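re the bet — no i am not wrong, look at it urself. input seq straight from the record:
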Amino acid sequence: MRFLSRRLILPNDLNYANSLFGGRALAWIDEEAAIYAICQLETNCLVTKHIGAIHFESPAQQGDIVEFGLSTKAVGNTSITITCIMRNKVTKKTICLADDIVFVQVDPESKQPIPHGKTLASLTEIIEG
């Protein structure tokens, strides 16, 4: 898993308990996973279809730097499935794990799913290359 980007937790990111608001974490995860999927499939005509299991494992506080690790789990005809871990940059403690994040490539005009022509093997070459 590659950790590709970071965010600083600011006061506006906090919940009533003064830790990272879960909704903010999910928005960041969706955005980071979308950027990752766009880079892998080489198109920005993607939509989020599904976000599966989400596990909040530890809190994050104001001033913490969090980083996002992303990996490709599966590739379908029109879709890509991604796993994302958000962890504390300093302690490496997992804050949140989001599994089975599915993006589907759509036609920009009709908004219907279309094949992307990629395979898991071809994406692995992009990641490792």
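see?? Residues 106 and 113 are 4 Å apart (CA to CA). told u. also DSSP finds two helices and six strands in the chain. so pay up
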